[in-house]
């Protein structure tokens, strides 16, 4: 989806977060954003390749009082350095650095990924994990072999249990394992 007129501004307009989120609902917008509280004091300035997802994470993590308004400058062709430069410029415009960029950093920047994952649907999370795995494989991530050894060991144990159930005609272990899997 393209950037709509309500979302395409020069980053100077402060907009109610709910209104901005509603307008951005079907758009993946990259950009620099500032989160302001109910008194319009800047709480955090960040950048993201998916501003809506980041804002939803911040809202879930910090609540509506701290995340009431937003200022966003969208980037049609985002480059990390350009977004970092604009983030620094916005911070420099303020009298003091926002708490989310200094003292409360772990409430904002450190949790964006986790908070974003928390608001994903099960299908979005599965797609995200699959894409992450593909990228790790493409980058020849050495930790994958250790993880696959653990997975292989658990699969080998399951195979051994299945063979024992067939041989001994005792399916209780298999049924118990399946019951435990469905509880979570």
Euclidean distance between termini CA atoms: 36 Å
Any idea what the shape is?
elongated
- Helicity, in percent? 40-55%
Number of helical runs? 8
Task: Report low-confidence residues grouped into runs of 5 or more.
Answer: none
Main β-sheet description? 4 strands, antiparallel
With strands numbered from the N-terminus, the spatial order across the biggest sheet is 1-4-2-3
Summarize model confidence as the mean pLDDT.
81
- Could you give the count of β-strands? 4
Give the count of structural domains. 2
How much of the residues is beta strand, in percent? 5-15%
Structural class from helices and strands?
alpha+beta
Nearest-angstrom radius of gyration?
Answer: 23 Å
- One letter per element, helices H and strands E, the order comes to EHEEHEHHHHHH
Features:
184 residues, alpha+beta, 8 helices
Protein architecture, described:
It is a single chain. This protein has 2 domains: 14-135, no CATH class; 142-183. 54% of the residues lie in helices and 13% in strands. The chain has 8 helices and 4 strands; from the N terminus they run E-H-E-E-H-E-H-H-H-H-H-H. Strands 1-4-2-3 form a 4-stranded antiparallel sheet, with helices on both faces. Helix 2 crosses helix 5 (112-118).
